[in-house]
Amino acid sequence: xxxxxxxxxxxxxxxxxxxxxxxxDPAEPLCAVAEQPVFAQLFLSRxxxxxxALESVQWACDQLALTQPAPEGPGGQWLxxxxxxxxxxxxxxxxxxxxxxxxxxxxxxxxAQLLVEAAEHHQPVETTGVPAAVAS
Length: 136
Description:
It is a single chain. This protein has 136 residues and is mainly alpha-helical. The protein is built from five helices and two strands; from the N terminus they run αββαααα. It has helices at 2-6, 36-67, 73-107, 112-119, 132-135, and strands spanning 9-13, 19-23. A two-stranded antiparallel sheet has the order 1-2.
């Protein structure tokens, strides 16, 4: 169903028992209002997975900050800055994925409390030594 949505199509259940993929208006939801409770777990799973990916990226940034030696010379400084920029990009991408998953779930009627529970980090992520652009 999500693959169909990304392709600009919608999945409909036919009375004959088959699932039909039909073109649809991007403004309409992925599923009918009556079907939203059936798909709530799918949307919650996507939010939970995106939150886990973000937490993993933040942990990797912490490890980079803790294990990366001080730069030596212009080449070392360049590599250090490139690593920090890559880490910041990875955090930004993970945050966008989480935002998109939450937005999709919200549009499809998943209750806000369930979204908060799925998106929260179960343990605080320490960002000691990571530049503010990476930690945010």
